[in-house]
Amino acid sequence: MDKNQKHREITFYKDYFQDFFDKQSKKVKAKIVWTFELVEDIPRVPETYLKHIENTDGLYEIRVQLRSDIFRIFCFFDQGKLVILANGFQKKTQKTPKKEIELALKIKAEYENEK
Fold first, then answer.
1. 20 CB contacts (<8 Å, ≥6 apart)?
2. pLDDT band (50, 70, 90) for residue 2
3. Each residue of 67-101: pLDDT tens digit?
4. Helix (H) or strand (E) holding 36
5. Burial, 113: exposed, middle or buried (Cβ in 10 Å; 0-12, 13-18, 19+)?
6. Of 30, 34, 40, which Cα lies nearest the Cα of 3?
7. What is the DSSP string of 85-97?
8. DSSP bridge partners of 79
9. Of 66, 68, 84, 65, nearest to 76 (Cα)?
């Protein structure tokens, strides 16, 4: 297999993610970019970095951790390979906040309606 071939291609939908990304520190941005590259490049991404969110129709979270700071970036697959990023947030509690999941599902529905 060609070393440069990606297993997934990450694309961005509107500015949802960009708005979140722009607010982060340089170190956090670097870690997010590193995590994205990992998700794109390895065939089976461990749950440490990419996890399906229970009781949702195909919503996943990319998990970014920098020291004690934990970030979640919602995404979903489109046509198998494509990961589309929706909103992101800093995780402060054990459970992913319901309102964040609802927002991500709303963005996903918006995306699907526009296709």
1. 73, 87, 88, 89
2. low
3. 998 999 999 999 877 688 888 899 888 888 889 99
4. helix 26-41
5. exposed
6. 40
7. EEEEEEE-SSSPP
8. none
9. 84
**Position of tokens 């970095």?**
49
Mark 90-107 as b/e (b = at least 16 C-beta within 10 Å). Answer: ebeeeebeeebbebbbeb
Distance of CA 15 to the CA centre of its chain: 14
| Total residues found in the chain within this entry | 115
- Assess contact for 18 and 84: CB atoms under 8 A: no
Token pair belonging to 104: 């991500």
pLDDT at res. 76 = 93
- Tracing tokens 């195909």 back to the chain, one arrives at 58
- pTM equals 0.87
Residue found by looking up tokens 């060609």 in the block: 2
